[in-house]
User: Fold these one by one.
Assistant:
Number 1:
Amino acid sequence: MTDNRDRHNTVEVVTAGQAFENLRLHIAEHAGEPDVEAGWARLCQAMDEERPTARWRRSAAWLSWMRVAKVSVVSGLIAASVVLAATGGWWPAPLGVLMFLVLADIWRQQEVRWEAEEHEKRERRYQKELVIRRAARAARRDELDQARRARHDFEFLTVVVMPAGCPVGHSEGAAADFTGMDLSTVVLSKLNLIGAKLSGTILDGTSLRGANLYGADLSGAALFRADLARADLTDAILVGADLTGADLGGARLAGANLSRARMTGTVLSNAVLQGANITEADLSGAILSAAELSDTDLSGAVLAGAYLCGAHLHSANLSEASMPGANLRNAYLYRANLSRADLSGANLTHAVLTHAVLIDTDLSGADLSAPSDLQDVTWSEKTLWGRYRSEVQRKSIPIGRGRYKLNPQGGTTRDTVLMPSVPV
């Protein structure tokens, strides 16, 4: 008996609205048919459109109090009228009736006011509950839509596109072919897409986080603001791809071909691009902090305003690269080729430029560490040193063909060599 009482006390009380909502979710999860969804949507809409009536029913306690008050007032007036009639004649009776009518009118007006206030309170409470119910239904509907979309994506990738029994993205002697398809709503995170054919595919905003795209063909693909963080794009082909605003943080792009790719504002922090081909790509405003770019070909690339703090550019080819205003603070440019590059206004403080080539390079307005820290740097008569011109002249020696060596390992011979006038 005690157990039954305890179980009765612990029963969860739910409202009718909550019960209907649970029933709708149950039908949606287990049935999922379009007609069921449509029918339930009509029922929910009808429930939402319900509004309280013009007059709300008062509570039992309030009605009881009103009844007692009215009876007391009327009884008092009758008693007063009888007493006055017994002691003073007939005139008190009409006076009592008049008083009763006046008080009844005042009471009626007060009752209407109380009723209006109660109606307004209940209306506000109803609207608040309605908003909460709609928000809960919308959140649950989004969860169901996401789950349904994930199931559809899985069926699309494993049944529609892939041969039977083959893993996603790779099969014996063939790779998944998504050429020209619109996959902007498909979730491809952590999928195996080795060698997949994604040329011209629309992947704007698609999540490819952690996906394996080794050797995949993404030439001309639309990857605007796509999530490719920690994805493997080793040896992938991304010629002419649109990676504007995409997230490639921590991605592996060693040996990838990114020539002529649009990468404005792309995040490549901590990405591995060793040996990649990024010629003539637009990396304006891109974030490449701590990126691995050794042996990378960036010739003719646009890196205006790019953030390359701490980037590793050992033996990188940056010839004819446009890098005005780029931030290369603490970058490692050992043996980097910066011939004919535009580094005007760039920040190169504490950057390592040992054995770097600065032939015909524009460094006007650039912020360098002391020229004495630049070891074995090769430059030419057309190199623009800006405010560092005089000091560079004093610390350089000619090496022939109009070229000079700054701070050579064997020391300078300024006292015996006449240095030419170096342009600003």
Number 2:
Amino acid sequence: MIGARISVDFSSNSSFDWLVFPHGPPPAPDPRPGARPPGRRPRRLCRRRGAARETARTRRPRRLPRTAPRRERPGVPAAPEKAAEPLDGKRDAAFAELAGDLGIWLVPGSVYERGTSDRVHNTTPVYSPQGERLAAYRKICPWRPYETTTPGNRFEVVALPGVGRIGLSICYDTWFPEISRHLAWMGAELIVNVVRTPTSDRAQEVVLNRANAITNQVFVASVNSAAPSGTGRSLVIDPQGTVRAETVDAGDSTLTDVIDLDEVSNVRRYGTAGLNRIWDQFRPGDPTLDLPLYGGRIDPATWNPAHTTEEPPR
């Protein structure tokens, strides 16, 4: 059974799916002023069976990070060290078989990967309709101090033959505009941001994803888990920042959309709202701009992104 699922059909006959596995119904919102959002309610403790429960009245509530669920149950991931396995393990074979059987491009959220020296990474793989893993992206920006996985050190843009190019990001990556900018510069026309956010900052993530789409003139698909592991609100955004499709709550959902990746080239050619051409900002002869934060610089000679996929002539 599939939980929050997004299926995107491109202008060609190819389809691209990514899945977030099922979870139960979301907790009802608390109408009281100052009440905690779903997923951050005070944890009830019990010393032993039959003992009196300690509640928020007698003990200060404890906030739990995303990577430390209250207890292991369906839909709530285990700790990274318990769930991690090598990238080419049984889980990888199952996802590859699923993509091949369905004949789809598959991004199955992210998984805990056990890498070298027993390090654990938060990793998003990509599978082809032929049942092959084409790429795997390791999350660059873990949600610190709560997330304990080892950061990745490279950007990942995947060419889907006959479709286009997608860039990969995971959850907290979207808070760092440098990641989306580099994916767009490397030629991504769609950024797939897979998420497991059970906290109230999903509202800010929605804004950030729209901003990343606007400032880089790319499609963005941000896919959040359903309850109880996440708060939902998955969405597809076009290169001008318009939300094309969105789930309305944290329940299990199937979100579909049909997008034309040529819109990326059109927006960059004519400008956002017919005005703003950010990728044409710098011209030959403009001075370089030092970026002390990065120990680098913006060079007008290298500002323009890789060419996007163009539809073949008819």
Number 3:
Amino acid sequence: MRVPWLLWLVCLQTARSIRPLGQMRFIITQGKTFPSAEASLVITLPNDCKCKMRCLVSVDCVAWSSLPSSNDTVECRLTELGPQEGTLIDQNDAVYGFKPSRLKSRITVFEGEDGLIYFIPLEDLRYEGAKKYCASIPGFRLAIFKTKQQFQIGVDVGQNGGRGAFVDLRRTKTGEVVWGDGTILPTSHYPFVAQISKVHFTKFQIWTESLDIIVNESLQRKLLCQGNDGYNWW
């Protein structure tokens, strides 16, 4: 079985640091591809890494996919469509990668000090739709903050065009405040969430000095997606 993380070892992908997201970064996953009809180029190459590098050096290439072919080669597909506008299909023996820097976003796609990738899609959605949207992009989810550093990232986003964006934090029917992965928000983090004592509000958003409650939960709003380009995403 071909394992995506080997591509980073073989291709010497740049290590994480605190910086704007570079064009050399890819998020890579196994078991996904796109239709050949959406490809701008289909070519036979020796391996997955050569396919990735072909996309890297092409200005117009946003995503690539490789599928096993004959004589230990791969069919390499390049496309100008990213995961937001292209069609992703399941195929067990495929490898798919895309440039997260080319995601369509209201703010510049960036890497936080936590090493994760953040962007705000152009769409306005309700909470459940926001969760599905972020999760539809390989490696991404609606943002979850576990550390003081990450809460500060939220504040910085709020002060630079992200105010009012959903994060994946909600209050349950039993009154617990829970992140989307099931982790209960510890009381030590309550100071990072304004008006958290108002128990009849169940959803939360990015604001300019902290997270905050959402008063009108029926409205569509912005969303902050959080991505991980590591092999074990979450």
Number 4:
Amino acid sequence: MSHQERIADLYLRLSLDREGKTAIERQEFDCRAWAERNGLEVRKVHIDQGRSGYKPVDRAGFDAAISALTTGTVGTLVVWKVDRLSRHGMSQVGQVLDQVDKAGGRIVFGGCGGRMSAAGRSYVCQGRRLGRPCPAHTTAFIAAVDRAVVDAFGTRLAATGPGDPLLDAIAERWVTRHHPEIMRERATIQAALDDADARLVDLEEARYLRGEFQGPEPVKRWDRLHNQLTARVNGLRHNLAHIPLPRADISPLLKTVRSPEAWSATSVDDQRNLLVLALDAVIVRPAEGRRGYRFDPDARLQFVWAVEPEPAPID
């Protein structure tokens, strides 16, 4: 392998159109992971931030990335997903690929980001099943993924102790599920309290930091507004205190998860209900040409726990 073939650039784009946005951080993480798994050294990261492929604007990052590829500076350009190249459709993407192919380079896609669903014995890309193109098409045996998820779930919970943020998150979600009316009422009061607190802080800053409300009459008006907001804050705090959080004893849940016999005796629906208390997402990565090898959960799966920031919105 030549030096050029061992070097790769990354191209990332944050879309601001109505389809939403995929975090630059998630794109870079996935693309770097792909490059590392394939023995490539990342030379440079090209970014177009806050630009939409729908708009007729110059994309400096895109132009620089394609230039590096077509001039032979690098042999590979890693893009998170095909729609990061262009929102104008596959025809324009095809033109770019033709241009790169003539120069002897290659564009690879380091991620997909779509949901997966069961098809026969495997989880497959849902977009692919619906007929949409998926350059990072991924499949994985359901039994292997489910077993790995359960093992990771049990291992993660076995490592928790009193005060662990994950246990707190599980307890909060359990309470929300079993006492939705109480939690909605608390959320409504808390939102109103946060707003009143913010308005009170702004009012105090207006007088003491920004120098507003100068003179006898403005000061009287400030006093009146301050008293009203203070009374509202105190009233909302009082109301919130009289709707205490229900207690959540999740010890039976933990015993079920930590006991293989108890877990096996639990219905599939109940197992899923327990899993979503602790897991926000399970990301399945492509096998990278290792078809026929034993499923490696460490290489293929990424777990997003309830207390961790999700790499990206999952469509």
